[in-house]
Amino acid sequence: MAQITLKNLAHSYFPNPQSEKDYALKEMDHIWQDGGAYALLGSSGCGKTTLLNIISGLLRPSHGRVLFGDRDVTEAETAERNIAQVFQFPVVYDTMTVRDNLAFPLRNRGMDASYIKGRVDQIARMIGMEEILSRKAQGLTADAKQKISLGRGMVREDVNAILFDEPLTVIDPHMKWELRTQLKQLHREFGHTMIYVTHDQTEALTFADRVVVMYDGRVVQMGTPEELFETPAHTFVGYFIGSPGMNFLDAQIAGNRAVLPDGTSVELGQSYGAPTGRTQIGIRPEHVVLTAGTGVPVTIRRVEDVGRHRLVRADAMGQPVNVVVPEGMPLEANLTHVSFAPQKINVYADDWRVAPQGASLGRAA
């Protein structure tokens, strides 16, 4: 296992990049702790697979360094990095049995036969394949093959890191939760450094101890699921995390007050001075309350019943506002305004979170 350090790392697919926009990965410095479970989360094209491929050695960065512990592996081949990889689409040997597929990485390294058997049996139990160990892989379903691929990635105990590139894409939805749970169990049991690439926030938040959110080639925040939800460092994080995401309203900030375009004043939980640039307030739908005549005026567009609660879709001054309403609460015609929990409001300037006066930003490293 190894701590992974990225120093001044950046990458462009152009031979002679001229400006920052030519870089698929903007320059970054990050330290990922030995034994951590990380998820790389972002929309398609944000750079997460590029970053994973640089860490794995499949791609050489345009500049910067990658260190495993104290060892510079920037120019090292993938085989020299002592990692295991699981890709989006299953890679298995159809002519081999399930047992032989799982055992392949261990036999390749000359491990003792009794150790191989014990380890394969253990992994097979974790992925629910102990009953078909003697079957050939050929003819198995795509999700069964991906379970083999996952198992083969996890079977080695001596790896520096295990890298997963959207490994559950072809897995039946019913199995996804179970496999994520098994991956978490494996991490707790053996403490491998794990990096898991996904565009699915549920996968990221349930798998990882720390989630690395990427946007436009940058890591915009690295934090726990709670940090990403409560204090998004960037408006993209607020929008991308949550269902629905955070509400954002343009506002002028003056100390502990936010003034909306129609002149409505909103109390903030803390003082923010007078930040410049495009300033906004952000509030989660869970912390918005419909009121009768006090607060921010809204127009309700529709109501969606999602089972555990109802979601009210409204707008305020032309900007969308979502409100989570508890199941059973009556939605009466006089509910024409919303109020916000002051301590749950975040302030943003040019898309980046502004720290309250006297507090540090805590933007993820």
Descriptive overview:
There is one protein chain. With 365 residues, the protein is an alpha+beta fold. The protein is built from eight helices and 23 strands. The chain folds into two domains: 4-82 and 159-230, P-loop containing nucleotide triphosphate hydrolases (Rossmann fold, 3-Layer(aba) Sandwich); 245-353, Nucleic acid-binding proteins (OB fold (Dihydrolipoamide Acetyltransferase, E2P)), CATH 2.40.50.140. Helices cover 23% and strands 31% of the residues. It has a six-stranded mixed sheet with strand order 6-7-8-3-9-10, with helices on both faces. Strands 2-1-4-5 form a four-stranded antiparallel sheet, with helices on one face. The chain has a four-stranded antiparallel sheet with strand order 11-15-22-23. Strand 22 and strand 23 (352-353) form a beta hairpin. The protein is globular, with a radius of gyration of 24 Å. Residues 4-241 form the ABC transporter domain. GO terms for molecular function: ABC-type ferric iron transporter activity; ATP binding; ATP hydrolysis activity.
Tally of strands: 23
Content-based structural category: alpha+beta
Indicate the CATH topology of the largest domain. Rossmann fold
Q: What's the rounded overall pLDDT mean?
A: 91
What radius of gyration results from the CA coordinates?
Answer: 24 Å
Largest sheet strand order: 6-7-8-3-9-10
Low-confidence segments, given as residue ranges, are none
The N- to C-terminal Cα distance equals 20 Å
Tell me the name of the CATH homologous superfamily of the largest domain: P-loop containing nucleotide triphosphate hydrolases
Report helical residue fraction.
10-25%
- Gross morphology: globular
CATH level 1 name of the largest domain: Alpha Beta
Summed up, the domain count is 2
CATH architecture term of the largest domain: 3-Layer(aba) Sandwich
GO molecular function: ABC-type ferric iron transporter activity; ATP binding; ATP hydrolysis activity
Family: Belongs to the ABC transporter superfamily.
InterPro entries: AAA+_ATPase, ABC_transporter-like_ATP-bd, ABC_transpr_FbpC, ABC_transpr_MalK/UgpC-like, Mo/tungstate-bd_C_term_dom, NA-bd_OB-fold, OB_MalK-like, P-loop_NTPase
Protein name: ABC transporter ATP-binding protein
